[in-house]
Amino acid sequence: METTLNITTNLPDEIREPSTVADPVDQLLRRAAQYRLLRPHEELELAKRIERGDLRAKELLINSNLRLVVSIARRYQGLGLGMSDLVQEGMIGLIRAAEKFDWRKGFRFSTYATLWIRQAIQRGLDNTARTVRLPANVAQQTRKVDRVAADLAAKLERDPTAEEIAAETGFEPDEVERLRKLDSRPASLDARVGNEDSATLGELLDSNAPTPEDEVGRDDVERQIDLALGELPAEERAVINLRFGRHGEPPHTAAQTGRRLGVSTAEAQRLEQRALTRLARLDRVAALHEAA
Q: CATH fold of 13-129, please?
């Protein structure tokens, strides 16, 4: 039953070969049909084998979840990338999930992989959406500023000033301002709502992402998330819902969020940061993290 898959950060090589019969996505779906869905105990066994360096186990885990990539990619059609490109980005996330999955956490691989697939697709869309793609060094600087700003906001319980961020990053205050203006990316699923040990927003806000088998649905955790967001002011709650693509919305950039709410990009970013800071202090969110 097992068929070797060439593990790359793109579609398998045979999926990328020209075909007059079907497009790459159709070929991928036909390949996926060769693999049945894994039972929880089978995922567990494969994860343990992967941890020991078993590449065939990694290949089988990826092959058995190809349909998940297509299922999620379809939700992002019409946002700037064709379906084949969306699937290729999603494959990056699926492979990464197979490499990082920790079977000790007790949740299904499909739940965990959904977070990584969506993040990879969002990043691909982000790169496409930029009028001028940021050089790698500038993108790295914006991520550093974002990370420091989030840490300071959680620590200070308010938005940090450019001077405070500059003191932590080593940049000049005017450079901090410039980098923050450049950054209007869809929110990262890796962003944490508190300190380094707290849950990521992807873990808390993405629990309702569907899988082909409807294994990731609106459950009690999702209801708890809604209750937690319900404690935010209406404007901040609206920003979080738009930025993270909740309730049927696609993920929005800060600029798109600002336009939807009738505020500036900078104001949308400030509202988001305040919301994340509030969420970090909520007992309900802490309880969700403990239960994860």
A: Four Helix Bundle (Hemerythrin (Met), subunit A) (1.20.120)
CA distance 269 to 150: 11
Contact in structure between 244 and 139 (CB atoms under 8 Å): no
Contact 182, 134 (CB under 8 A): yes
Rounded average pLDDT over 17-41:
73
| Amino acid symbol at 33 | A
Q: Which residue from 250, 188, 200, 191 is spatially nearest to 225, judged by alpha carbons?
A: 200
Measured distance CA(142)–CA(137) in Å, rounded: 9
**Residues 79, 83, 85, 88: is their CA dihedral positive or negative?**
positive
Q: Buried b / exposed e across 3-18, counting CB within 10 Å, b at 16+?
A: eebeeeeebbeebeee
Tell me 52's DSSP state.
Answer: T
Distance CA 73, CA 92 (A): 12
Over residues 125-142, the pLDDT tens digits come to 776 655 445 666 777 788
Give the start-end residues of each E strand in the chain: none
Evaluate whether 93 touches 119 at the Cβ level (below 8 Å): yes
Residue 235 has a CB neighbour count (10 Å cut-off) of 14
Phi first, then psi: give them for residue 115, nearest 5 degrees.
Answer: -60, -45
Least reliable range by pLDDT among 126-140, 175-189, 202-216, 244-258: 202-216
